[in-house]
Design goal:
The chain has about 700 residues and is α+β, with helices and mostly antiparallel strands. It has four domains: about 180 residues, Immunoglobulin-like (Sandwich), CATH 2.60.40; about 100 residues, Immunoglobulin-like, CATH 2.60.40; about 270 residues, no CATH class; about 110 residues, Glutaredoxin (3-Layer(aba) Sandwich). It is about 45% helix and about 20% strand. The strands form five sheets. Strands 11, 12, 13, 14, 15, 16, 17, 18 and 19 form a nine-stranded mixed β-sheet that branches. A five-stranded mixed β-sheet has the order 20-22-21-23-24, sandwiched between helices. Strands 1-2-8-5 form a four-stranded antiparallel β-sheet, covered by helices on one side.
Amino acid sequence: MAVNGFRLMTFALATLLAMLFAPLAQAQLPAPGGQPNIRAALVAESDRPAAGGVVALAFEMKPAPGWHGYWANPGDAGLGMRLKWTLPPGVTVSPLRYPVPQRLIVAGLMNYVYEADYAQLVTLDVPVGLAPGTSLPIRVQADWLACTDEICVPERAELALDLVVGDGIVDAARRGRFDAWRMALPRPLGGEALFEAKAGKLRLAIPIPASAEVGETYFFPLTEGAIDYAAPQAVRRKGDTVFVEAALRGGAPAALDGVLAIGGGRGLALHARPGAVDAAAFATAAPLNAGEPADVAGLPATVLLALGAALLGGLLLNIMPCVFPIISLKALSLIRAGGDERSARIEALAYTGGVVLTCLLLGGLLLALRAGGELVGWAFQLQDPRIILLLLVVVLAIALNLAGLFEIGSIAGGERLAQQGGAAGAFWAGALAAFVATPCSGPFMATALGAALVLPWPAALAVFGGLGIGLALPFLLIAFVPALRRRMPKPGAWMGRFRRILSIPMFITALGLAWVLGRQSGVDGLALGLSAALAVGLALWWAGRRQWTGGGRGWLPMVPALALALAALVLLPHVAVPVENGGVPGDERFSERRLAALQAEGRPVFVYFTADWCVTCKVNEKAVLQRRRVVDAFAQRNVAVLVGDWTQGDATISRFLERHGRSGVPLYLYYGPGEDPQALPQLLTIDMVLKAIDRS
């Protein structure tokens, strides 16, 4: 408990305040129609139970959108249902049985919850010898906690059933409802599980036949305080055993009860006793879950693989339209430097330092936010319209500089490089290149960044640093390999023309950023952003004119221009612009509930996740997903298309991406009828999509 003591104390205080002011809270946050935030109903499987028999009762719970209820063990915070029964003489009731829960992290706290409709079951024992027609009034006071991501409200219901002793017959419709609810309950394991606590870890060995299908797996502990709920679990399988490794919260428990979720809403109820767990078998077992933490024995290989993928992914970022002009500009500065090898290397190292430091800062901030419970991924900063506006102004300034409107030595770099004065400009050029490259995602990056989010933080930062080195690698090679530098063209008039050509992709990038700003902040935000960009552009034009005429104080107009840009950043609205469909005819907004419904219908489903600032996403949509061959194939095979828009961030999408080992978009999944999802590459072709559809 000491690990999360502060967070638990904070939650307890918030819950106490919610209880004290529950009527006010409910008045402020009513569910649709003025109902409780989680509606409860008590239902009997048979209204006429037989004497000496049993009858199942269900608490049917219906959370309002955005609200959730809790499992028996709520996790780091929350409260399960509490019941006070008033029963006829001789009638007894079993403990409450819960369906397999879901995971939800809020403010760094792991919650075991239900975000959709669910039912909790009990069994009522009717005494022997009661005469037919005997009335059985069942009364129960139910208390539970209803929460959103921001507030919790204690709720209560006085529920009643009036049963009559009879023949115990159950009608078909009601039996079907109860059978569906029973299917959501965990099944008994049917074997003995063992656990071993050692070196701060608790390792479970659970017997499950190798032939049994197991999907996304997670251990929900019923024994409270045994493990650190928020810490990641390593789940592996070898032969007839599934291994689970979790972080201990305190000392080793005397016994361990819980539910092993095995995907698809299925679970196994288990009781584990202390015993030896085969460490060698665990170390050689295959991971079950995508993106799960690597264990220490396999950590070096995992880190090396992620580093290699990060290097290659960063290298490929150099061909992106917003990055290529910056590296080309630095290459031009090397050409101007001629044979000054020392200056070239100093500038290359400074550029690399700017790239790597920016990647480390972004990666470190990402890890810190996720450790605090924020569900964010790579390029998270671009979900903030203020960052988009800042990038718009900076990219426009670079485009105007490349076009020749004005000159800044620290950007052009050529004049100062020969005098060893270009290191500062190279550093900031590298930092800018890394920052504007974050919307881009391509081959190898998904593997690298997905691994970074589950590795220990030093290894994760090494992966982010590897991404930066990959991005800076071409410039390093040019600076440190004389043979490459000698093959570069000689300085000449062509350099001026080439530099102006490089302004074109930067202007296109600025136009794209303006479009994203409009999507995130609406027309008012776009007007503010364009006003700031116009003011900075006019000030740079004035500065350029003063440079050409030799006048002084040419940078004075930048003061009011920057003040206007700062005011725009402060006043910029962050509104929820309605998300449009991705352009595939008939597509729908993604939700896990809709995905499950489509799968239950037996329909094939194509799911893709995108963002307006994701260059790769937009290229794939225009070049592949919106092409007639693909659209016709979707229609002919009755493929449902779901699109998840991550432009402004979405916790549901973030959790879904994380479960599939991704830290950002794009992600493309195809669900064949009755099949596990097939992940498609991040760079799509029409044939890839058609081949995936044809296989099902």
